[in-house]
Amino acid sequence: MVGVNAGNRAVVVPTSDYTIGCVGDANVRFVRWRVPRFSDGVDMGGWTVEVHYVAADGTSDYTAVDDAVTEDDAVTFTWRVPMRACSTAGTVTASAKLTGGNREWNSGIGSFRVVESYDNDPQGHRLVDSAGDVVTVRTED
What range defines the domain where residue 34 resides? Predict the structure, then answer.
């Protein structure tokens, strides 16, 4: 689960959540987040939640969250990773945004990875082998 530090709002992305998909994936990866419920005494339980991101190609967008749950000390929710976020291999950055009334709270920025796939090579000349966090690409003869 991606966590957000209550003090400095830093986003902590565990290794298990670092790779969010392959090029061409759409709505098949679901990343759980946990953010603090309270910020300087303000209760953010029940607020609207969005995940804002910048894809590897520089495109920015956001995903509305529809499953936010208010817990004693946190708000948890799922980021359904959209196809736009997986349009290009490379680093995707994301942050959480909570809004309530005229108030807005933003987390810091976390980094994720999208890896190459056949979807990114219409001629099928590349094979992608993945072993943990190591990805190698080789060309077929």
Answer: 2-139
